[in-house]
From TrEMBL:
Coiled-coil regions listed: none
Organism: Streptomyces litmocidini
Identification of the protein by name: Phage holin family protein
Keywords from the UniProt entry: Membrane, Transmembrane, Transmembrane helix
Keyword rRNA-binding (UniProt): no
Pfam families: Phage_holin_4_2
InterPro entries: Phage_holin_4_2 (IPR007165)
Transmembrane portions of the chain: 9-30, 36-56, 63-84, 96-116
């Protein structure tokens, strides 16, 4: 899987975990399909935003660079979750309540994206 695929998978897993674990994110509707569509809508919005403005490493990077990318990506993800808290009730049955929930959801999402980006095989240089 290439780096872009790992980022997309990280966003999907992160959004799913945030929606499933955080009590401040509610998936309204009575049907299971409504809940699945709400999570998919959140994942699509998050994926599009993170692809338009990509903040993150391409492959393995040293820890200081990873922390810098993580902080910048966390801010980006928090802004997208904030957007989802506004768009969610208008477009689907997704409700995100409170700044703490937005920040925790951003942390979960960015952590999964960074984790999956670091799973790439190590790049060997010709001088080694």
């Amino acid at each position: 899987m290439n780096d872009q695929g790992r980022r997309r998978l990280g966003v999907l897993i992160g959004v799913g975990l945030a929606c499933g674990l955080l009590p401040g994110i509610t998936l309204g509707g009575t049907e299971t399909m409504d809940k699945v569509l709400a999570v998919l809508m959140a994942a699509v919005v998050m994926t599009i935003a993170t692809q338009l403005v990509f903040v993150g490493p391409s492959g393995r990077v040293p820890l200081p660079a990873l922390l810098t990318f993580g902080l910048a990506g966390f801010v980006q993800d928090a802004l997208v979750w904030w957007l989802l808290s506004w768009l969610g009730p208008k477009m689907s049955h997704l409700h995100v309540e409170g700044l703490a929930t937005i920040l925790l959801a951003a942390l979960i999402t960015r952590a999964t994206v960074l984790l999956l980006s670091q799973l790439s095989p190590a790049v060997e240089t010709a001088g080694d």
